Task: structure prediction
Amino acid sequence: MSDLDNINPPAISNEPGSLHPINQTKDYLLKLLADMGFKEVHGPEIETEEFNFDMLNIKKSHPARQMHDTFYAEGKKNVLRTHTSPVQIRSMLESKPPIAFTSAGKVYRKDDDATHLPMFHQVEGIYVDENVTFANLKHLIHQILHELFGDNVQIRFRPSYFPFTEPSAEVDILSESGKWLEILGCGVVNPVVLENCNIDSNKYSGLAFGLGVERIAMLKYGVNDIREFYKSNLDFLAQFK
Amino acid sequence: MKINYQDLINFLSQKPSKEDLSQKLFQLGHEHEINGDIFDMELTPNRGDCLSLIGLARDLVVFFGKSNSIDLFDDDIEPLEINFENLSPEDCPKISFLEIEIEDSKVEYKPYLENYFNTIGGNKANLFTDISNYISYELGQPTHCFDAESIKTKLTFENKECNSIFKTLLNSEVTLKDRNCVFSTNDEIISLAGVMGGASTACSNNTKKVLVECAYFNPESIIGKSVKYNLISDAAHKFERGVDISSQEMVLRRFVKVTQDHAKIKSIKLKSISEGHTQNFTIPIDVDKINKILGTSLDINEYLKHLKGLGFEISNEIKAPPYRHDIKTNNDLAEEIARVIGYNNIKSAPINLKKITNDSNNKVAKLESLLVNNGFAEVINFPFTSKKKKESINIDNPLDSNRNNFRTSLRDSLISNLLYNERRQKESIKLFEISDVYTKDIEIKQQKKLGLIVSGRVGNNHNDFLKKLDNKYLNNLLITNLNEDVFEITEIDRNSLDTKKKDKIYYIETFLEDIPKSFFLNLRANKKAINFVSYKPVSEYPSSTRDFSFLIDDLHRVHAVITLLDEVSDELIKDSFIFDFYKNDKTKIVKLGFRCIFQSNLNTLSDIEVNGKVKEILDPILKIEGVSIPGM
Result:
């Protein structure tokens, strides 16, 4: 055996690719919610107005239903879902309480500027049982946010308005720079929505929440420009191995 | 909506500081930014009642007590004989008209009106329009001022089919289409109701006799018109969110009072028309229900005290104020109580759910693992395209004509991703996307597709550097146990693309449901736990590449050289790797090819900067005995 035979070539390291950071974050949130007892359900991105709006107590006059906010398709027969809530509606129609569902995926709004995209991702959850209260909602949201941002994160609830929840809240966390950052929307499920899904609102109540996946990913990874996620730039994507 | 802090605290008995006021506004759910004395409010769409000074004050009284009331004209007012017909009472169930004639319209504004225009109101127009704008700020009820001399014939309100040009009081022309609520005289539209009045009947500085229209328009009759005709209008914003259905006459009495503050009035006449009976919502008193919604233990006295503080009438039931269109159920009342208590002061209570195990070894997860383990990067693309196929889902209101269809294939998106990265000097590109696509036949069909595209080098290491991503590579990657041809590999013709690169492009697209089960049999999903790395911004400056060929004739030094090259690192070095390794049996010399790619986040690197870094890398290596770079 010559000296040359003893010389090993440089080690070849496997050069792995990467899952998209938005899908990684979405999967992480789904796993977190599964650990808390939420079962994932699926539904279409192209929806009817009935499931996207009517069943969720979003009245015909609500601004979100306007052509400048929502994409309509096929001669107004369909909409591109503006949230993943219709998935929960479809699932509630097929189930009886107690239920705990989570739905995740692409949603669409008619926006396109530096801070808003026409397509983004949501993860939403709903829990319906007897005696579910706003206090339960607060506990769950604290659990989620402590998992995401650590036990010491400061959390603030603010009243807000969503037609499908009442009371409704938006939740902020305090950033390191001392600024409150909006992180999710939530509320007690509006009894009208339960009744629309054939659930007796005198017996059952529910809580619901929705997280913007891009928002969470931006905060967790420190990405400042939401558009970076959708440039398909390998220098960007390779950072999330 | 902008509110002056000094104006707002006039209506509150305690005079809170800006900080205290701000804190309570947030507690109530009224987001805002503060600039000096101006609170720039962002109100939720259900709280149209708060779109005014008095509206916000009503919400804050529960914390800070009530002080001043609005000063109204209290005397009797002569009835107005007006030739008016309401042909659409369902769109406008209440409307009042006020006619005022003054002696001289050239007046000096009182400090409160002057201050409004100096801080919030913007440009003045004329006395009556300015009073109208001020009152909308103060009371939240828009009014419209017609020059009374311009209305000589019957005035009609109706929701009618339109196809005519309407010249607004701002002198812009819009073509009214479809159904609109309008005021007309002599078949001429003189006002787009709830949005903007017309030029032909607008007031001017010479107007001495005004006809003020003050109405409740059904929000559903007004919504969308302002955006449709691109007429930015404070009135439309308020009517769309609902104004106080009971306030029209009070508002007009305030109009008289403010006019009286500024001009000598010759005559005042008023007419109020109400179509149908309006009734406030009532809800039974049930504090247990409220506690059941919130998870609190409020007693009834505390509950009712909070509601009274918010303007609710309490008798043997709870009656919501007429301006609170949003209150209809106990859940609405629970939110009111929670706002007063403070959401953050409600104690949380755990729920008891059992952990769920989702299927993490499904087809998608297996494919993702296979591809990521072999160096593919996943991309996500927007689904919009200009390409229309028979089965495409058409978007009725696209962002633009290039995005008016839902894609039925991932191919164009992935080609575009590949070309983007080639332009960024990427030499080995392996991308994939897994996405639902939608097609229509009798009904809309949803199917999951995999698309993957490759071009360039297989890899940067010395084994793969000279190999090209091709048909064979993809076949080896995706071969099944049964050796079936599962995937159809297509070469994409570069001639049709905007590129000068020569590397061949290969593409695969398939429905997941078309991949046979056998393909997945030996695959395992092995996703890593997420690592939230701290992202480093991607440089937009060009990179600079340098290749070095080391000759090592002292074989004992080879390992040392490789170790040093592996350790090369600097903030200006984007990537480095050994791309060639050759042992010459005859000469007993080892040859190493090393590539270093330099890039800065701050600027385009000069040769001097790159050469400086090169020297830092090479010096320690070239000091090793028996190591050289030919020609250097």
